[in-house]
Amino acid sequence: MSNGTSVKTREPVPAECAQMSLQGALRRSFVALHSQRPVWRSVLEECDPLMESLGNLGEQMRALSRVRLSDTPLRVFPELQERLQFQLLQAADLLLQRLRSRMSHLQSVRDAISNQVSAVLQLYEDTADSLDLAAVTERLSVIPSLADMLEWLQDAERYYKQQFLQRKTLLQTLRLDDLSQLESVFKRWKILESPDSEHEITNALCRLSFFMESQR
């Protein structure tokens, strides 16, 4: 027996319309990825000399800890060693503040990319019922398949998320009183670079150049 209340069901989206909508969302996402990459690289280039300076300060602290100023002519300045140590710690703390500021810029890039990917995946989920296997896997001469593009986009998002997390963790766990950490910080920062992953993203964007330029 009906209670007079009808349940409205969402009409399925025609396959061609769903495919075009998803292509449009993917295009916007890859254009955003293309524009965010130089921002990311620029921030990392700003971080490199700061990290190198931080490592140099660690070496200076190490050298200072090995010197007994009381055995040198500088013993006439009894508080000199403590003052020098304080100045080095202040300089290191200032560098850390500047690096944390740069990390907020990296986070903005990561979030911009992740937001685009989330929107695409949500659209794909909403239109999946209207897309058959052929529509998802079809490749044209200048347009990769939807499946390929979805995979490339998620790979790029995963890369930036991992990079941000690793660099953020490195800074958060850095202790200024641990000279071994401080001296090696620049090397550990550079080790995080992943040229292979960068190359894969560059290669994907090259293959998508015509697709990204179309219908803009």
Assembly state: single chain
Distance between the termini: 53 Å
Share of helix among residues?
Answer: over 70%
Please tell me what the overall shape is: rod-shaped
Report the sheet with the most strands, covering strand number, pairing sense and barrel closure.
none
Residue windows where pLDDT falls under 50 for at least 5 positions: none
Tell me what the structure shows.
The structure is a single chain. The chain is mainly α. It contains 8 helices and no strands. The longest helix is centred in the N-terminal third of the chain and has 52 residues. The termini are far apart. The mean pLDDT is 87.
Strand and helix map with partners:
Layout: H1 15-66, H2 80-127, H3 133-137, H4 146-172, H5 179-183, H6 185-191, H7 195-207, H8 209-213
